[in-house]
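Page 42, continued from yesterday. The earlier attempt failed because a stray header line got pasted into the input along with the sequence. Redoing it now with the clean sequence only.
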Amino acid sequence: MPTKAMFLMIKQLLEKPFTNPFPVKHAPSNVTSLIEKVQKGEAKINPPVPIPENFRGKIKYDSERCIGCRLCITVCPADAIEWLPELKKVRYYASRCMYCALCVDVCPGKKFPGEEKAVKALTLSDEFLLANYDKYDDSLIEEPPEAREARKAKGT
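This time it went through. Structure tokens are written below.
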């Protein structure tokens, strides 16, 4: 005896699929080469959907706004933020982050002369394409420029 579920299944089989053409209109033969073309500006990707308000994307770190309070390290449940004692700044690893935004909420930031209120050192961005084969790639680490130079000099 046919049931409601069977009719629904047959109806769905006959309908045209509704899909979002992300990241490009047609499936690429090689995803790695597509990512490289996008980074070079040779190819353009379609956004999956409009980014909603309060989207928790990759965290951006402004080392000039950081006061070295280490509150972000204290509240980070994923241990994605490392203290750099020689610079009194932090290093953020996007590959470890769980995007809870607790560090952004707790960051007091710094107020420069001429500004009305302090601006946070850690902020959420709209960046969502973070796939990478190397979890320690420079695109997944936010740190002060002098820390990046020292890390490259050491070869780590």
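Notes: The first helix runs from residue 4 to 14.
Reminder to self: strip header lines before submitting.
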